[in-house]
């Protein structure tokens, strides 16, 4: 009921609030551009800002530095934006649909399901391209989500947040061992498969970006327009039905969207956890309980966090770099614990 | 954990720590140990250089000066030998057939074991660090053979990171083997000595022929290298988005090639924690410009494909000109494989353009 009251307050406060939220979104957009540029200038090869600028605006000299900027750093960063948006939106949707503050595509085993499915498909049908992996990824994501939700629904009180998180942890552990087992027993494909053990933006180039772009673009479009439906669900199933929503249909569409977004993101970068959990909460802190705004904020804020973590991973080691999946794991775990312990957030 | 550039494809450790694929894990601690061991080995080598009967066998007793510098003696010449797969390949060329082997990975996938006939030999393990000691015990071995790794002060199968259960194989029989050092030739000669101490006639039959072939192959290799004085080569192992350049100092075959006239480029700044390699990012692959690229053959063509996908690959002149081949990385143990590899590389050297860069 608190949600209802808060929602009523926000929606009631009118145009000025909307303006404030829009301004906030624009500021986040500027931050994203800044992080984007920072990500392009950072790397193991020393390239001056001037050269970076030239590579973007006056390409064609064909120098090594330009190749590095245009074909290694820009694709990596673009992919970070895309995958960030996908994970942020999936996290928001999951939290809204399950009314569970701990829902996250990583924690709920969806990303590891996608990774396991890809690795299994390589084992069964041989190595293919990313364009085939994506479909297995969707299947794996969907299956894992279904498994976690059904396991958590056992028992009297249904799928409580903590039960969902526990079921997710169990399924994640199980699926990760499946991935590891396959990787261990298929040494030929090791190089190919290791990509799906730890999430990373490194070593992905422009073709990967183009291959996942259509899926994530469609997923993001559906996600961004699902705010009204999520607002309805946030009021509870009965009220949502009373408001004329097809609750089951909405849930199905939402889960399918999550499977597509997470599947594509995992196919591109491997399993990445915690951003999908933390950023929707940050977004909620910034803009209140209206899902239309939370979704928009999460779509911009998650890439900022993901790219930030990626940049951190590049600087934190003197020699080499840390995968973004690892950085986010380290940073995300304490936040996750804080969320579990915090009483205010546990009621969505 | 482990400190040598082990076959990257299959080791358990490699799976748990992907970085091992192109290993850069040597801790300063191990490095120090390695240096100390080298000193000790040099000393002991000086001490024993004049000694007679290094591998001499008395009437029916047996003794061998092993890679760790110790002399091992047994009342009887050992006949039931368990060997690391590479050591087994070496011994088998000299006609000594072990009863069992343990390998670092699936035997059929190992480039270093291609063509070795292990039929009739029990396989005690095909994962690095795992040996079925229970099965080994039923075979009643009287000797265990593996390379001695000076950097790790351990024989193959006894290194840090090997599970304790597997190390119990050492309780079944003494472990011996020649030391990994600065030259594959010395390593093979070590196995030659070990085999002859075990009763093999290393000059007769196919073993003798293999050595003669090697000598011939070496000769043509040297001539080919001498004919192209300006030719430079770079030994690499690309993975993920990393371009690992091998440091010849820790790759005995590369040291051999250098000695025999092929200019294998020595990278300037080897990784501090694991000096077997200098690991560059794909952003800096143009740092060294050789005339000929040598891919680590243990995970070729995977590593080639990884590099090919990198947009900067074309900034390596040799890659652009398709001037590349593979190098037998850290696995050679026999005259016959070394001869084959030298002949192959001789062909590559003859094809190569010394003025590419």
What attributes does this structure have?
heterodimer; A: 348 residues; mainly alpha; ABC transporter involved in vitamin B12 uptake, BtuC; 0% strand; globular; B: 357 residues; alpha/beta; Rossmann fold; 2 domains; six-stranded mixed sheet; five-stranded parallel sheet; 11 helices; 15 strands
Describe this structure as you would to a colleague:
Chain A has 15 helices and no strands. Chain A is an all-alpha fold. Chain A has one domain (2-341): ABC transporter involved in vitamin B12 uptake, BtuC (Orthogonal Bundle). Chain B starts with 11 loop residues before the first helix and ends in a 6-residue tail after the last helix. Chain B is globular and about 60 Å long. In chain B, α7 (205-227) packs parallel to α11 (335-351). In chain B, β1 (62-65) and β2 (71-74) form a beta hairpin. With 357 residues, chain B is α/β, with parallel strands linked by helices. At the A-B interface, α4, α7 and α8 of A face β13 and α9 of B.
Chain-wise SSE layout:
The complex is a heterodimer of chains A (348) and B (357).
Chain A: H1 2-12, H2 15-41, H3 49-57, H4 64-98, H5 110-125, H6 130-153, H7 161-185, H8 190-194, H9 206-224, H10 227-234, H11 237-242, H12 247-269, H13 275-287, H14 291-316, H15 324-341
Helix pairs in contact in A: 2-4, 2-14, 3-4, 4-9, 4-12, 4-13, 4-14, 5-6, 5-7, 5-12, 6-7, 6-12, 9-12, 10-14, 13-14, 14-15
Chain B: H1 12-16, H2 28-48, E1 62-65, E2 71-74, E3 81-84, H3 85-93, E4 100-102, E5 122-123, H4 133-138, E6 143-145, E7 148-149, E8 154-155, H5 164-167, E9 175-176, H6 184-197, H7 205-227, E10 232-239, E11 242-246, H8 252-259, E12 263-264, E13 277-281, E14 292-296, H9 302-309, H10 317-320, E15 324-327, H11 335-351
Parallel strand pairs in B: 3-4, 3-6, 4-5, 6-9, 10-12, 10-14, 14-15
Antiparallel strand pairs in B: 1-2, 7-8, 10-11, 11-13
Helix pairs in contact in B: 7-11
């Amino acid at each position: 009921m608190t949600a209802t009251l808060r929602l009523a307050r926000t929606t009631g406060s009118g145009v000025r609030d909307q303006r404030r939220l829009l301004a906030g979104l624009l500021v986040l957009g500027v931050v994203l551009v800044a992080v984007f540029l920072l990500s392009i200038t950072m790397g193991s090869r020393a390239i001056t800002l001037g050269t970076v600028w030239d590579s973007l605006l006056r390409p064609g000299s064909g120098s090594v530095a330009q190749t590095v900027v245009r074909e290694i750093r820009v694709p990596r960063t673009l992919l970070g934006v895309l995958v960030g948006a996908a994970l942020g939106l999936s996290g928001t949707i999951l939290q809204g649909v399950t009314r569970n503050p701990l829902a996250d595509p990583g924690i709920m085993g969806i990303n590891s399901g996608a990774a396991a499915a890809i690795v299994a498909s390589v084992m069964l049908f041989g190595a293919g391209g990313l364009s085939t992996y994506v479909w297995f990824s969707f299947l794996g994501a969907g299956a894992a989500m279904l498994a976690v939700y059904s396991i958590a629904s056992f028992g009297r009180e249904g799928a409580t947040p903590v039960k969902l998180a526990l079921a997710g942890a169990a399924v994640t552990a199980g699926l990760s061992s499946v991935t590891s087992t396959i990787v261990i027993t298929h040494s030929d494909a090791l190089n190919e498969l290791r990509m799906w053990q730890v999430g990373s933006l490194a070593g992905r180039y422009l073709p990967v970006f183009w291959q996942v772009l259509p899926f994530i673009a469609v997923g993001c479009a559906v996600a961004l327009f699902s705010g009204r439906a999520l607002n309805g669900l946030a009021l509870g199933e009965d009220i949502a039905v009373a408001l004329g929503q097809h609750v089951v249909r909405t849930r199905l569409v939402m889960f399918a969207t999550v499977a597509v977004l997470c599947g594509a993101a995992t196919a591109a970068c491997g399993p990445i956890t915690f951003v999908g959990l933390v950023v929707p909460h940050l977004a909620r802190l910034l803009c209140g309980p209206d899902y239309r705004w939370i979704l928009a904020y999460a779509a911009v804020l998650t890439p900022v966090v993901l790219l930030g973590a990626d940049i951190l991973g590049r600087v934190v080691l003197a020699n080499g770099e840390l995968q973004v999946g690892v950085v986010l794991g380290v940073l995300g775990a304490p936040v996750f614990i804080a969320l579990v312990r915090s009483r205010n957030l546990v009621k969505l | 954990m482990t400190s040598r550039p082990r076959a990257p494809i299959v080791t358990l450790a490699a799976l748990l720590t992907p970085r091992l694929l192109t290993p850069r894990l040597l801790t300063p601690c191990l490095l120090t140990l390695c240096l100390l061991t080298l000193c000790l080995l040099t000393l002991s080598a000086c001490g024993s250089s004049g000694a007679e009967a290094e591998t001499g066998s008395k009437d029916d007793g047996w003794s061998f000066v092993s890679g760790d510098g110790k002399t091992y003696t047994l009342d009887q010449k050992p006949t039931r030998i368990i060997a690391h797969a590479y050591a087994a390949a070496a011994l088998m060329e000299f006609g000594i057939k072990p009863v069992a082997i343990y390998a670092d990975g699936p035997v059929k996938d190992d480039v270093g074991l291609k063509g070795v006939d292990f039929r009739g030999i029990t396989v005690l393990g095909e994962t690095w660090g795992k040996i079925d000691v229970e099965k080994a015990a039923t075979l009643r071995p009287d000797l265990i053979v593996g390379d001695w790794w000076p950097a790790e002060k351990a024989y193959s199968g006894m290194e840090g990171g090997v599970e304790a259960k597997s190390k119990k194989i050492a309780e079944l029989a003494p472990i011996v083997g020649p030391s990994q050092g600065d030259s594959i030739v010395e390593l093979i000669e070590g196995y030659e000595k070990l085999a002859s101490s075990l009763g093999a006639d290393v000059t007769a039959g196919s073993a003798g022929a293999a050595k003669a072939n090697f000598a011939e192959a070496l000769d043509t290799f040297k001539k080919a290298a001498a004919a192209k004085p300006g030719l430079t080569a770079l030994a690499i192992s690309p993975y993920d988005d990393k371009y690992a350049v091998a440091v010849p100092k820790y790759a005995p075959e590369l040291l051999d090639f250098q000695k025999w006239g092929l200019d294998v480029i020595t990278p300037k700044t080897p990784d501090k924690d694991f000096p077997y390699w200098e690991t560059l990012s794909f952003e800096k692959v143009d740092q060294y410009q050789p005339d000929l690229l040598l891919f680590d053959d243990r995970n070729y063509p995977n590593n080639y494909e990884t590099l090919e996908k990198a947009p900067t690959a074309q900034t390596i002149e040799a890659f652009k000109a398709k001037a590349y081949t593979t190098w037998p990385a850290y696995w050679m143990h026999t005259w016959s494989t070394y001869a084959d590899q030298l002949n192959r590389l001789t062909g590559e050297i003859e094809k190569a353009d010394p003025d590419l860069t």
